[in-house]
Specification:
It contains 15 helices and 14 strands. It is α/β, with parallel strands linked by helices. It folds into 2 domains: 2-199 and 387-399, 3-Layer(aba) Sandwich (Rossmann fold), CATH 3.40.50; 212-384, Rossmann fold, CATH 3.40.50. The strands form 2 sheets. It has an 8-stranded mixed β-sheet with strand order 3-4-2-1-5-6-7-8, sandwiched between helices. Strands 11-10-9-12-13-14 form a 6-stranded parallel β-sheet, sandwiched between helices. Helix 8 (238-245) runs parallel beside helix 9 and helix 11 (317-323) crosses helix 14 (368-384). The longest helix is centred in the first third of the chain and has 19 residues, at 81-99. The protein starts with a strand and ends with a helix.
Length: 402
């Protein structure tokens, strides 16, 4: 079986789409599958090419047995709607042309930006191969939610295209049951929708002792640390978190934000204006460094802005933190909350509700019995959402369409 996989993000980028894709592909290769990835030169989130790469028209490399083809694209930072769309569309166009000349049995395209699925759709029509829409985000609905684009007519047009792509795909792999429900309500045949959630790589993420050297280097010894590792974007409600920190009097509580994104400068300026001493900002780190930083935190923070749209989202941070037995403080309603509460692997606060957020922060820090119970719940969650099991389940679905 030969798979052509089109994704705008791939390692060494460290966001959720890149991680999910490479970990699935590694497992599929073990099952004898040949995989070709079409992506661009790594540049997320700043639109600046990583060291060791160039934005060439075409370049090829092999990573962990995966053939990776990188094509040229217009590159822009993860901010500014017009520039980002130009970035996405240029990649989709190049991926389409290069994809036409590859050998494969099935084409997969992954969102959250769904221009990749335009490429898969076009290739499928010309080469007469089945194609799969891996649905990681309800785009452009999420764009409408965060206000990144105000043009209603353009958004309505994009949503009509989105719906057409769902109907045309041979299979849709949604990352949440809520996404599946959304599509069914919009007239998509439920039989063509499979659900493969995000999960955790329990080989990379597993319980370990705190990295005392790292703690000392950050001057965070003897602190109770709430950690956020990931994209600092418009959807993540980090400005609300920073605004709330001035109300915390307990000097033992500290917040550690690691990553980058369109909102980072704003929230750093906000922390400076509030004269906060209980927060530390760090630059993005490589994926293999994440476990070390997770080891030093006590609670993983996973907030999103308050919106019905995000009730369908399950932050991947939940799974990685749980695999390391770190409870999550979740600011998301819906399916993510249901999972966390089912396994008793963290606490949930009402999104953008300062009183509830501060209450849960203090509860996690001060109630040692509760904290210990949540740690125990993390292990069961991680085992049930083992990425290896999920990858095999997805491969079984793909094989039925070849």
């Amino acid at each position: 079986m030969k798979i052509l996989f089109i994704t705008d993000n791939f390692i060494p980028e460290v966001n959720a789409p890149a991680t999910r894709t490479v970990e699935h592909c590694k497992e599929w290769i073990k099952e004898g599958v040949e995989i070709t990835i079409i992506t661009c030169a790594p540049n997320f989130p700043h639109g600046k090419i990583y060291e060791g790469y160039k934005n060439k028209l075409y370049q090829k490399e092999t990573i962990d047995g995966i053939e990776v083809i990188r094509v040229w694209s217009y590159m822009a930072a993860n901010s500014g709607f017009i520039k980002r769309v130009s970035d996405y569309f240029s990649f989709a166009l190049m991926a389409f042309f290069v994809g036409l000349f590859q050998k494969y049995d099935i084409v997969i395209a992954t969102s959250p930006q769904f221009f990749t699925t335009w490429s898969a759709w076009g290739i499928s029509k010309i080469r007469r191969k089945p194609w799969v829409f891996e649905l990681r985000d309800l785009w452009p609905e999420s764009i409408r939610t965060v206000g990144a684009m105000k043009n209603k007519a353009a958004l309505d047009w994009l949503e009509k295209i989105e719906l057409g792509l769902y109907k045309d795909a041979d299979k849709i792999i949604a990352v949440t049951e809520a996404f599946k429900s959304n599509l069914i309500q919009r007239g998509i045949d439920p039989d063509k929708i499979g659900v493969i959630t995000n999960g955790s790589n329990i080989d990379l993420f597993s319980p370990r002792k705190k990295d005392d050297i790292l703690l000392k280097s950050l001057d965070l010894e003897n602190k109770f640390i709430f950690g956020y590792i990931g994209t600092h974007g418009m959807a993540h409600s980090l400005d609300f978190i920073v605004q709330s920190l001035s109300k915390i009097d307990d000097e033992d509580i500290h917040f550690l934000f690691i990553g980058d994104g369109s909102m980072k400068n704003k929230i750093m300026d906000m922390a400076l204006e509030l004269s906060l001493t209980n927060i530390t900002f760090l630059n993005p780190i490589a994926k293999d460094e994440v476990p070390g930083y997770l080891s030093i935190i006590d609670v993983s923070l996973a907030p999103l802005i308050k919106s019905d749209t995000f009730k369908t989202v399950i932050p991947s941070k939940i799974f990685e933190a749980s695999a390391m037995c770190k409870p999550t403080l979740l600011g998301v309603e819906g399916q993510a909350q249901e999972i966390l509460e089912k396994y008793h692997a963290g606490l949930c606060f009402l999104p953008e509700d300062e009183e509830d957020f501060l209450k849960k922060v203090l509860l996690l820090k001060n109630d040692s019995k509760l904290y210990s119970d949540l740690v125990n719940g993390c292990g069961a969650l991680a085992q049930d959402y083992d990425r290896k099991k999920l990858a095999k389940r997805m491969l079984e679905i793909l094989k039925t369409h070849v």
